[in-house]
Known about the structure:
2 domains; 6-stranded parallel beta sheet; Quinone Oxidoreductase, Chain A, domain 1; alpha/beta; 28% helix
Amino acid sequence: MAAARAASLRRDNLRARRRCSLPAMRAMVLHAPGAPLVHEERPDLEPGPGELRLRVEACAVCRTDLHVVDGELPLPRLPIVPGHEIVGIVERVGAGVDASRLGERTGVPWLGHTCGHCAYCRSGRENLCDHPVFTGHGRDGGFATQVVADAAFCFPLAAPHDPVHLAPLLCAGLIGWRALRMAGGDAAVLGLYGFGAAAHLVAQVARHEGRRVHAFTRPGDDAAQAFARALGAAWAGGADEAPPEPLDAAIIFAPVGALVPAALRAVRKGGRVVCGGIHMSDIPSFAYRLLWEERQLVSVANLTRADATDFLRAAARIPLRVQTTTYALARANEALADLRGGRLQGAAVLVP
């Protein structure tokens, strides 16, 4: 009897200590491709040399996260914490990092580290590094209350906006910016295939630059088409429709290979089609005449730190309307499901 009472007392004391203790670091963790993320508590993270630790304020949910979770991208390690559109406050710094960064609001993007010595890094094309590390892919990301990142690949966020507004800029904005630059500065008539997180930001930047934007959505998606028109699109329709005028360039954000011949068909002679995603379903065969007459088909791979600096500078002066739906961290699986099912306008953002 006494032993049972003692055991019961120990359990009560343990529960009391747990209630009184500070919350541990929490994360949504992928243990196997295709499996739901698991909510876990972990010890506080410690930054190593050249690193900093952020208290995560917000992390947007990207289609690349969906590719990671669904097993459509090879993963260098498991388990992994997804998330690479991270906004947070620097709360610890490792050796070699300026202590003045403590308390700074900082953004962490997809490109988490590069080797610095391969031919691509040496020629200013670090986005093509032979040995990169990607946030939420090769190192734990921001679906968590804390994250450790390479300080050299983090960006101070001086824009006077809340973290939820800023988070989608760290990938949807950055990759959209690079895709827009690759579309060409002389592309006055621009088509956007897939009108999600990236396209709704790119459309506004393109309009700010004086371009005319045509938005292509899933056939029958009246809400997305109305959203595109509200953001300044001159025309919005289904991806199975022809635009009202030939396009100078098109950017494909939807991971659907069948859109490639459709976009080639829509661009004028000498036009360019830019594939803006990291993964796409197989591209069907198409007649050479769609590519002929000096049309170009190119892809965007990752980003450079220069891209981030340029875009964040531009975003500070362009009055971007960032459309978001917020989810508590523990609802990350629901956010991914809504993205997978096409139920979002703009970007999903996790808030710890």
